[in-house]
Design brief:
Layout lengths: L2 H11 L3 E12 L2 E11 L3 E6 L2 E3 L6 H12 L6 E8 L10 E9 L2 H6 L6 E4 L10 H16 L15 H12 L5 H11 L2 E8 L6 E6 L15
Parallel strand pairs: 1-6
Antiparallel strand pairs: 1-2, 1-4, 2-3, 2-7, 5-6, 8-9
Length: 230
């Protein structure tokens, strides 16, 4: 059955389609990027872009659908994924009534280098093109979620290489929070939390070899309240 026929049946029955949309972020060259795919659905959405996602099939959960659409459209697996919110405005999709369960996903530099897509593109969040549906609203909600979680969890690890320098760690925080942080204060706070540890290796930089670190815990965890002062 064609999608247009399916949507007409749904509209006639006065029920809503359940779908997922995934906001995938990564940091490239000290800039937060989001992954977008082409959207061309005449007559309402012509030559636009949108978030990867799609309809939830009757045999899949929302989480399973989100993972499936990521695998199909960006060709990545085993990446950070959390449910963001439900978007259900009656007119969010002009084609038919649709309710979207949105997700926030993050990709590390290693995963970014491995991923591939024949159609999708990575776009800086401050240079977004015309977006279909309510995807601008979804992206804004995802940015706010990320800003909040980065100051009370160790979620920054999902945007960093396994081994990183302290300047690289600080830049991720500055990119997400959109403001500079005091170098000495930042390092003192982070090293006092025991959230990261030295790996016994250095990386050559333009100045001198920089100590490499890694996060102590592989899981997402709440960090000390001292970070509220960031």
């Amino acid at each position: 059955m064609k999608e247009t026929e399916f949507r007409k049946i749904v509209s006639d029955l006065r029920i809503a389609i359940a779908a997922v949309d995934v906001v995938v972020f990564t940091v490239v060259n000290d800039v937060l990027h989001v992954f977008l795919t082409p959207v061309h659905r005449p007559p309402h959405y012509l030559n636009m872009f949108g978030l990867p996602g799609g309809v939830i099939s009757d045999s899949k959960s929302a989480d399973e659908a989100a993972h499936r659409h990521l695998k199909e459209k960006i060709q990545v697996e085993d990446i950070y994924l959390e449910q963001l919110s439900t978007f259900s405005a009656p007119n969010r999709d002009k084609r038919s009534r649709s309710i979207s369960i949105a997700y926030l996903s993050l990709i590390t530099p290693e995963m970014f280098e491995k991923q591939s897509s024949s159609e999708g593109v990575w776009v800086p969040i401050d240079k977004l093109p015309s977006l279909a549906y309510d995807h601008s609203e979804i992206i804004s909600a995802a940015i706010e979620r990320l800003k909040g979680k980065i100051v009370y969890t160790n979620i920054a690890k999902e945007l960093l290489s396994t081994h990183f320098t302290l300047p690289e760690l600080q830049r991720v925080y500055e990119v997400i929070l959109k403001r500079p942080l005091d170098k000495r204060n930042f390092r003192k706070k982070f090293l006092n939390t025991n959230l990261i540890k030295e790996v016994g290796k250095t990386r050559k930089t333009s100045h001198r070899p920089a100590q490499l670190y890694k996060f102590s815990n592989k899981d997402i965890e709440i960090i000390p309240e001292v970070w509220a002062a960031l």
